[in-house]
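Rather than argue in generalities, we have chosen a single entry, letters for residues, whole numbers for local backbone shapes, without further comment.
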Amino acid sequence: MVAETSFEQAVADIQAAYLALGHTLGWRFLNVSKDVLDSNPQIALITANPGGNSIPSDHGTASCESGCAYLSESWGGSKNGQSKLQRQVQRLFDAIAGQIDFSPGGAALMESSLIAYYIPFRSPRLDQLPRKKESLAFAHSLWSGLFGQIHPKLILTIDHAAFKAFGGLLQQRFPTSLPDHQVMQTGWGEYKAEIKRFGQGLNITTLVRLPHLSTFQLFARPECKPFTDRILGDACVHL
């Protein structure tokens, strides 16, 4: 059994690995408050790694204690919370809140959900990540430990790397059967979403991959709404 990893241990491990692997562009871990990890959140949004060449000095590193980064930070010169990706994620959570009748709304749901990076180390693109093999191995170890203390019922991803990684972690958690796997239309050309369901009975975790929302702004296109409603309706069945 993998030992549980606390927030403080995770941060110490990330900093040590960052230095040992020779990363130089900074790192980020949680896009929400560290208290979320202690709340055993039911929903998680995990993206591959922080992109770009630097972290602005007013952005959180280990966590974001002044509010979810997708709501409170300025990205790419946009006003706080108004970059294309931030707005898409906000609309994603608005849609989930509607699916599960969460009356406080999408912003409150974001603040109480685990929103984080799978690989904490920054790179302009994932394929430009230094020491990629070792960095992926570290990320797997980090999240294996975090999975000792959290048991989300819904994990959302917007890239193939995080989807594949969490599929592997969930298969370790639920080793007795292969997951149910669906491929669904998004309404954006031929681009698809994927849903995998792990476990059985009352112990089920659903893993979702949407096309990357910074490019494929599904939640800004009315013609995509019937498709995203269908995807999220299926994704939220076990919440």
Summary: Residues 7-67+82-235 form a domain with the Uracil-DNA Glycosylase, subunit E fold (CATH 3.40.470). The chain has a mean pLDDT of 95. The chain has one domain: 7-67+82-235.
